[in-house]
Fold this protein.
Amino acid sequence: MLTKSSHADTPGMRAQFVCHWQFAEIVQPGKPSWNLEPWRPVVDDAEMVASGCNPGGQEEPF
């Protein structure tokens, strides 16, 4: 993934991935989309979880 996207190895992208990996798969196993976008803001863990792992605007229900 890192070779395909220069934005994949940024703090915000990693935080989104970790949040989805740790929480979204438990809440909604097999969710078709995780919405990892580089434009999302870097936030603390509490805000990341409160936003359904999509800080700055949620596109799909968590």
Remarks:
- Residues 51 and 58 are 7 Å apart (CA to CA).
- The radius of gyration is 11 Å.
- The chain has a mean pLDDT of 82.
